[in-house]
Amino acid sequence: MKNKIISFLLILLVSVSCETFDEINTNPNQATDASIQVIFPAAMASLVYGVNGEAAQFTSILMQYLTGILGDQQQVNNYAFVADMSDATWNRFYSDCLNNLRIVKQKSEELEAYHYLGTAKIMEAIIIGYSVDLWNDIPYSEALNLEQFPQPRFDDGASLYQRVQILLEEGIADLQRESSTSPSTNDLIYRANNENLWRQNSLPRWIMLARALQARYHNHLSKVDPAGSATATLAAIDAGTFLSNADQPVISFGSEFAGPWFPFFQTTFGENNVGISQRFIDLLRDRVGEGQDDPRLSRFVRATTGSLYVGVPNGSTFRPAGTVLPGPYLNSREAPTPLFNYSELKFIEAEAALRAGQAARAATAYNAAVAASLQRITGAVSADYIAQYGSETASSITFERIMEEKHIDLFLQPEAWVDWRRTIPVGAPSSASGIPELQVSPSNTTQGNFPRRFIYPNREVVNNSANVPDVSIFDRVFWDR
Fold it and tell me: What is d(CA 131, CA 375) in angstroms, rounded to the nearest whole number?
């Protein structure tokens, strides 16, 4: 019965949010009498949908996993961003995530429920990190007190990244404290049947996730501080994080409700507005050898009735005959929504180790990442693929190979756009590409230049015009030089 109630609340939350994003103007100071057990999964659901909703759609078009054909998705494909494109993600992060997490933290401290407090801080760190990666400076220190700060100031991205690391450290410390109560079935990220099992199995994995996130955000500073970021990244990993795919968060909303990608592709927006990019299909087709595709292709892309994989060329507004939508890896009701996979962590370790001059460690981590990716996505590890792409040594491992394989593994995840921007040479013009080598969209409206950030949502520009920074899509977040 408890699971059914939680499922109903999540359905109500996400359904209302999806329908009214352009109309809501939620006051974060509005009180709620809902229990911590109810607000907690609601905040989680909003986080998952915020990270893997519109933001993932748009960044996946920029990364040419998808081609935008109609509507806002076509505008993104043309690099013709308009302010209201960011409204949905911005509102979900602030109104549905940060506001609910503020309430969870307050109630946790009152109840001395430190395990709720620790997980809330980790989720807050995720939201801040993603927001900085998309917009750079954002309101934070004054953002959730509209009565005192009706027009909150913007905190700079670099200081917010420091705040991310502080929240993660505090979250770990809170999880290591004794707690009078803990999550259980209401934890969508590491669900457990009861509190004792949650403390035994889920709590250690939350700490692993926090340290993995520390590694991710340290590694994002590869342009700002190559050596220091590598050292900090490896230290976070060595402190103890994911050991296998079994430790990564598996976020599944169950049979009654699905994650964000499946319902999108079941609507006319998903069916008509996007298609799998021909570039991405070409990258995976015949990857092992002639007639031998990357084994993940059939999971990433739904084949046509003739067992063909037909994509949409980048910049095209014409949909070829046949099915050009994602396959069952994400486009199914039962598919878990990715938040941070073990394979991503091992790719991060490989990159940081290579940058630190530890080539043997880099090769070992990279090989583990490739195998973990194949296992997670296909359920098996292809010996042929491993022989060609997952058997590097200290003398053969390269930065380019790490980042290209990581790009495939991050299919439809916003983190891929972070990596692509990080791998553009320092000081290069906006027409330069990172890894993988992308060609600017033929339908671009930017004289051949790539976007490097999101612009601020229209609601924020209108309601907080005195503080909103004046930026364009060619300005760069603080870690992108």
Answer: 30
Residue at token pair 């992108």 = 480
E strand or H helix that includes residue 217: helix 203-219
pTM above threshold 0.90: yes
Q: Cα-flanking dihedrals φ and ψ of residue 154, to 5°? A: -95, 130
Contact between 183 and 198 (Cβ < 8 Å): yes
CA 30 to chain centre: 29
* Residue 261, SS3 per DSSP: helix
User: Which residue matches tokens 């073990």?
Assistant: 342
The pLDDT profile of the chain, 481 residues, written as one tens digit per residue, is 444 444 444 544 444 343 332 333 344 444 446 899 999 999 999 999 999 999 999 999 999 999 999 999 999 999 998 888 889 999 999 989 999 999 999 999 999 999 999 999 999 999 999 999 999 999 999 998 888 999 999 999 999 999 999 999 999 999 999 888 999 999 999 999 999 999 999 999 999 999 999 999 999 999 999 999 999 999 999 999 999 999 999 897 766 678 899 989 888 778 889 999 999 999 999 999 999 999 999 999 998 877 889 899 998 877 776 667 899 999 988 888 999 999 999 999 999 999 999 999 999 999 999 999 999 999 999 999 999 999 999 999 999 999 999 999 999 999 999 999 999 999 999 999 999 999 999 999 999 999 999 999 998 999 999 999 999 999 999 999 9
Q: Cα(first)–Cα(last) distance of the chain, in Å?
A: 52
How many Cβ atoms are within 10 Å of 182's Cβ, its own excluded? 21
CA distance 424 to 480: 8
Long-range contacts of 237-242 (CB under 8 A, 24+ apart): 237/211, 237/212, 237/345, 237/348, 237/349, 237/352, 239/211, 240/207, 240/208, 240/211, 241/208, 241/209, 241/211, 241/212, 241/215, 241/345, 242/208, 242/209, 242/212, 242/342, 242/345
In angstroms, the Cα distances linking 185 to 8, 113, 196, 253, 336 are: 14, 16, 11, 12, 16
